[in-house]
Design brief:
heterodimer; A: about 400 residues; alpha+beta; Rossmann fold; 2 domains; 9 helices; 18 strands; B: about 80 residues; mainly alpha; transit peptide (chain A)
Chain lengths: ~400, ~80
């Protein structure tokens, strides 16, 4: 587990031990790694180096996050790592184009690193990155399994700038491993390794609006090219990515607002948090009364809202024939007091003190989505994951780990 | 071994180039694998470029300076 902080290359030694070892690298590259590791004060688990393999005792919790490219995965990841405290940064001294983010407790790996075909290879075969044929699920399974079992791995790096597969980097098992990308729940073996899974479901209208914001200033891009790119990728997206949402424990659905008629700017959003019932260590959030169906407009005598206001909804529902609880927020916040007011009416939010959600949101007021349901629900899911992690770590001795996936 | 720094500067040329290529590839057959893969490349490059821009935006001029010169008057901070 994440007691090990690793630096791949020559960094001024300031930690307790440093070992230099030639590691056997995959993909035909030979590299020398100098890595340093420290053990935290708590000593809940320790890492050992034996016969070329680093193993850490204790279990790693694996979280899967699925979403299409350009749908806010990185913002979500920054919110999630912030809940656990400490900033996430790329591995120090390694490949500058590494997709990995490491913080004290959390390591986030990007599943694009498991592309079996590089950019040229995909073009020759005429397949997209969304296509399972462009991905090596065997390696993905083996390495995620190894990390979960406390073994360090040499993970390849897919370089998004050059489109090539770079030499691998060393990943040491963290306390919490997040695998984010297009296919975390596609392969059954990988799916079974996940302790919790999240799917970010962005509706076509919103996806289009977001990509316009992202790309319009880019040279060569126009409304037509953005549309063409979304449409070309859509068949593969519908065939391989979208079906994964049925396996997710939580789905964050982002839709156009219903408060403004015919709105297509994508600035005001209706966001749904769909939470699966009966998942061990995960108690869905509720509004006022668990299991009832409620529609709530917080604006009134106690709260002034500007146009178009805020509307909440909560209730039980069915999602891919699973029983779920759905919390919905339409509209956006203008001021902080609105959020504290809303937070005080939500239950089961797994906060440690009153106002923690508001505090987390304030910390990252500059992130996209901080004034609407995307930021709110991402923060809630972050707190839920912290709760799940704490429950699993305390129950680890008594309960078998596999039981975490109900 | 490989270039030391990523060059986001070269990315916008690459994007413009790949858009041109995608348009050509789709002119022949809009449903072909080549056409679809070309637009996927455009998406990948656009995402990489947007991530690079975000990273740059986050850099505060004073903080960047203070990382290299923590002893200067502008940068000294004491815990107590």
């Amino acid at each position: 587990m994440a007691v090990c902080k690793m630096n791949t290359v020559l960094h001024t030694p300031n930690s307790m031990s440093s070992i230099s070892t030639p590691t056997k690298a995959q993909m035909g590259f030979n590299q020398n790694h100098v890595f340093l590791y420290t053990t935290s004060g708590k000593k809940t688990n320790t890492c050992k180096f034996r016969s070329g393999v680093i193993t850490c005792s204790g279990e790693t919790i694996v979280i899967g996050l699925a979403a299409d490219s350009g749908c806010g995965k990185s913002t979500f990841m920054r919110r999630l790592t912030s809940v656990f405290g400490g900033a996430a940064s790329p591995p120090k001294g390694g490949n500058p184009d590494s997709n990995t983010l490491i913080s004290d407790t959390t390591t986030v790996i990007c599943l694009d690193d498991y592309h079996s075909l590089d950019r040229t290879g995909r073009k020759q075969k005429g397949v997209t990155a969304l296509d399972p044929r462009a991905n090596d699920f065997d390696l993905m399974y083996e390495q995620v399994k190894a990390l979960k079992d406390g073994k360090a791995v040499e993970k390849p790096i897919y370089n998004h700038v050059s489109g090539l597969l770079d030499p691998p980097e060393l990943i040491i098992p963290p306390k919490i491993l997040v695998i984010e990308g297009l296919h975390p729940m596609y392969d059954e073996r990988v799916r079974d390794l996940l302790d919790f899974s999240i799917y970010l479901d962005i509706s076509n209208e919103v996806k289009f609006a977001w990509k316009i914001q992202r790309d319009m200033a880019e040279r060569g891009h126009s409304l037509e090219t953005i549309k063409a790119s979304i449409e070309a990728r859509k068949p593969d997206f519908d065939a391989y990515i979208d079906p994964q949402k049925q396996y997710a424990d939580a789905v964050i659905e982002v839709l156009p607002t219903q408060l403004i008629p015919d709105d297509n700017e994508g600035k005001v959003l209706r966001v749904k948090l769909i939470m699966k019932e009966g998942v061990q260590y995960f108690n869905p959030v509720y509004l006022f009364d668990e299991g009832s169906t409620i529609s709530w407009i917080p604006c009134g005598r106690k709260l002034t809202c500007s146009y178009p206001g805020i509307k909440f909804a909560y209730g039980p529902d069915a999602y891919f024939s699973h029983e779920v609880s759905v919390l919905e927020m339409d509209g956006q916040f203008d001021r902080l007091d609105e959020l504290v007011y809303v937070e005080s009416h939500l239950s089961n939010i797994s906060t440690k003190f009153f106002g923690e959600i508001t505090q987390q949101m304030l910390k990252h007021a500059d992130f996209p989505g901080s004034n609407n349901g995307t930021g709110l629900f991402q923060t809630i899911v972050g707190l839920k994951i912290r709760d799940l992690f704490e429950q699993i770590t305390t129950n680890k001795v008594s309960a078998p780990f596999e039981a975490a996936k109900a | 071994l490989r270039p030391v720094m990523a060059a986001p500067e070269g990315l916008s040329e690459k994007i413009a180039e790949s858009i041109e290529h995608a348009k050509e590839a789709c002119a022949e057959d809009p449903a072909s694998g080549e056409c679809v893969a070309s637009w996927d490349e455009v998406e990948e490059l656009s995402a990489a470029s947007s991530h690079a821009r975000d990273r740059k935006k986050e850099e505060d001029p004073l903080e960047t300076y203070c990382k290299d010169n923590p002893e200067t008057d502008e940068c000294r901070t004491y815990e107590d």
